[in-house]
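pasting for the record
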Amino acid sequence: MLASALLALERAHKLDSENRDIILELYTLRGELGQGKEADRMKQTARMYSHLRDAENLMRKGKFQDAMAPLLQAREADDDSPLPLLEMGDMFSALYDVQNARRNYEAAAKKAPENVKVWSRYIASLIQSYEWDEALHAVEKFRKLPVTQSFIDKAAGDLYQKQGRFVDAQLYYKKAMARETIDPDVYFAYGKSLMSTKNFKDAPVFFALGLRYDPFNVEALIQTAKCTADTDSLGHAVSMLEDEFKRSNGSRAEYLTAIAQLQIQKGAWDKAQEYVNQAMSVNPDHAFAWKLQAEIAMNRESFDTRALTQALDAYKSFSDRNPSDPTGYLERYKIFAKRSQFDKAKDELQRIYEIYPKYPNLHYYLGILYSVQGNHVVAVQELTLELRNNPNSTLTLLALGKEFLEVGNAPDALKLFTKVMQQAPGSADAKQNAGWANYKLKNYTAAVALLTAALHIDQGNPLLHKRMGIVYKDMADYANACA
């Protein structure tokens, strides 16, 4: 009878290989029927799956801290398996603990060096942490192995999407969708990427394909409504979300904040506040509601003296609920910098650094902070660090060039401005500063030519006219200087 049961379980496992209950029963029975070391091994694996099931039940109830004990027991039961480490990574991800999640995914990947599903989780954590080089190295490694390439194509697409290279991302998402075996998550990723390039017409088609595999994907429904707002009307999009909210028995703060976001897009700030209040009453821990609350407060900045303080508090509440999202820290940095509270602004950037040491533009923001304080030497140091990480960042090239001018290094400043002009020929700022660098080097003819080119683009900029006057004055062309 036990042998027949084993055969039935093996058939069930072939039909549903991911079902943990079937796997647990299968290894338990194999342990009972086996002999010697093989039987011990089966029992060991069964114990691991038993502890994993306990952990999953706790995590399903939101008891993530309690899930740690059975996860550690699962790892102890079978230290060779990557599964307990993957589950730990998932748990830390749910707790927004990016560093610990990545460490566990990395440890799992080491135990399964050729398992593409394990590595795709690790690669995703590298991409989230802005570890571009490591992520690219991992992707290239799996290109050489006989594994399902759809996961790798999607990972490459995710990497380029995170870097803002949307066309490249879409190319790899298309490759992933053309494979014989497809990672279903690619449909949603491609839809989001299409929205990034304002292709709101085609994106819903791919959200619909993704919903076939995951019918309860709230984010896909919300993004579809946002596309409707651009292709049809905001009113229709709001109606779609309200209908979904009613079908969800009123338990979805996500729908309420999505509606609030559309109301902000309409400029209906009071209406947006009503939906944010509802979202907070449904789920006070829904982080996005607090982010929208901060945006609503910032809208009152010009006429409400309390607005910035309220925005700071709301962004703090957002970060408390989603500490892995750098947005809250970055927005508080901007508010503190605006208030000339430079130490507090620096503290916010330090919080980002502790989570994401390679966060793009982090040293750029520090450089700007030191520049505003008049510490141009340190500003040069920070911006040079940023340029090392992002050699083609036009923002950093411009900022560093301006700081070089401040410390009297016009030749290096001119090199940077020239590079920006090559990358962005329509940049008036680059032409203006290149002209000013030439003036500092006493190349007056070149200075006039560049400042004139900048004026053609930005005629209303008073600084351009002022600098042009200074150049003409030093050329002894007083008529043009006066003009």
